[in-house]
Design goal:
The chain has about 475 residues and is of the alpha+beta class. The protein is about 25% helix and about 20% strand. A hairpin with a 2-residue loop joins strand 18 and strand 19. Helix 13 packs antiparallel against helix 14 and helix 14 runs antiparallel to helix 15.
């Protein structure tokens, strides 16, 4: 096993005597790379953003540059990987195109958030498939520029003083990378290989197993180990709560957890794939998930977060469970004793509790086909994007000849666990998909769950939002696609 460390801005940097729970941000700042800042320590502001080289979502063996929150991921998670910070993009006398556009268009004022914006913007600048056209500073919409820039790439970066218009102008002014751009050329080569890692400091240990069987054996021997993929939840516990686990087991690079198969009977999604990878590989294959992804945190978070992690934490306000409940998803749990499939509807047993045993991992999520014809995902939160939901609802209905044939509705934020709206489903099935039916069923839905008062929303507000969700779905879909075209 080689000396633990990472390639940062083209230079190999050893970790040295690195405490296991040191964040990538703190390690980089100790290297005097102080462009990345700590703003929130929760992955919400993007001041800490960096770029890392990851396998391209095309699955063709090439590389793509991905932006992540350095405040959340353990530095040990970068072992054997390639990292670029804002300092590695350009110099004061030779600015990177992103840095140049931010400067000339007034995209920086105090500068605190600027390096993070630049790293997120640079990752989108290098995204395969972005197709710049002439007069790129003209934009097509509020979310996509004529230069192919997806403004959602910056959804996890906050600016408190400049205002977003000049930053948006800078993004929409970017052309294509130059032919001699080294970071663009790097995309055509193989990504860094997963690096088996074992780092100890005091009584704490960080382990990156080489295979799934090895990971399962470690978990069987030490079931108290904390399993980490993107660390978007665990990193917050480390930073804010001061949590220090004696053993951290990294599973984000395990090949066995990173498969995605689209079959005729079901779609299988590896629990270790990031949400960005799932979104791009599915490419709209599951419309309900296509609606979910843009509302799930930010691109910075989705570049690290996994479905396995979102389900494994057991949070009642996770965004994915309501949608997956509506899709009748099953989870495949695996241990050294074998594997078993569990319906997601039977997975949760209490607040942050589930049927998963301490020595088990979520291997994959299976979604049966055919998919329902009428789907929707509604998220109620204080911000439109990059926020925790107060209420989340996933709908999957089949309507034939104007009658609801089947209905599955998943709810989040209204009970100690994600739940099905069983009474509402029963009130819909066999009834006309009409305003009258929906009005009656919406009253039933307002009584589903056991919502509580907390700092995000009152119980009365949550109940009111449940009552409105079905009305909104019908207003958006008065007829199924088949009936509308008849």
């Amino acid at each position: 096993m080689s000396t633990p460390g990472a390639t940062v801005n083209g230079r190999k940097q050893a970790f040295g005597a690195l405490p296991v729970h040191t964040s990538a941000l703190d390690w980089l700042r100790d290297l005097r790379l102080t462009g990345s800042k700590e703003g929130c320590a929760e992955g919400e502001c993007g001041a800490c953003a960096i770029m890392v080289a990851r396998p391209a979502t095309t699955g063709d063996g090439t590389t793509e540059w991905v932006s992540i929150n350095a405040c959340l991921i353990p530095a040990a998670g970068l072992d054997g990987q390639e990292v670029v910070t804002a300092e590695g993009l350009g110099t004061p006398t030779s600015l990177h195109p992103v840095q140049h556009e931010m400067a000339v268009r007034g995209g920086s004022q105090c500068g605190y958030c600027t390096p993070g914006f630049i790293c997120s913007m640079a990752a989108e600048f290098y995204r395969a498939g972005r197709t710049p056209v002439p007069a790129a500073d003209e934009h097509d919409s509020d979310e996509h520029g004529a230069n192919g820039f997806d403004l959602h790439a910056l959804s996890g970066n906050l600016c408190r003083c400049t205002g977003y218009r000049p930053i948006k102008d800078a993004a929409y002014a970017l052309g294509a990378p130059d032919a001699d751009d080294a970071l663009a050329s790097r995309r055509d080569q193989a990504p860094p290989a997963p690096q088996p890692t074992r780092i100890t400091s005091g009584s704490a240990e960080y382990v990156r197993p080489a295979s799934l069987p090895e990971a399962l054996q470690i978990l069987a021997d030490r079931p108290e180990g904390v399993v980490v993929a993107g660390a978007t939840d665990w990193g917050v516990a480390v930073n804010i709560l001061g949590t220090r686990a004696p053993l951290v087991i990294a599973i984000d690079r395990l090949t066995e957890l990173r498969q995605l198969t689209i079959g005729s009977d079901e779609i299988r999604i590896g629990a270790g794939l990031t949400l960005t990878e799932i979104e791009r590989r599915l490419d709209g294959e599951i419309p309900l998930l296509a609606q979910l992804f843009p509302q799930f945190a930010s691109r910075l978070i989705r570049n690290g977060a996994t479905l396995g992690g979102n389900l494994g934490t057991g949070s009642p306000i996770g965004d994915a469970p309501p949608a997956l409940l509506a899709l009748d998803a099953h989870l495949v749990l695996v241990s050294t004793a074998g594997e078993r499939a569990v319906p997601l509807a039977d997975y949760y047993t209490g607040y942050r509790q589930s049927v998963r045993e301490p020595d088990e991992l979520i291997r994959e999520i299976r979604i049966p086909r055919p998919l329902a014809g009428l789907t929707g995902f509604h998220k109620i939160a204080k911000r439109r994007f990059d926020d925790i939901s107060s209420v989340a609802v996933g709908f999957a209905l089949d309507v034939s000849e104007g009658v609801v044939q089947s209905a599955r509705i998943g709810l989040g934020g209204v009970a100690a666990t994600p739940v099905r709206a069983l009474e509402t489903e029963a009130s819909l099935v066999g009834q006309p998909w009409s305003a009258r039916t929906v009005l009656t069923s919406s009253r039933v839905m307002a009584r589903e769950g056991t919502p509580l008062d907390d700092h995000r929303a009152s119980a009365a507000f949550r109940a009111a939002m449940l009552g409105q969700a079905l009305l909104k779905l019908h207003a958006q879909n008065p007829l199924t696609r088949t009936e509308a075209s008849a």
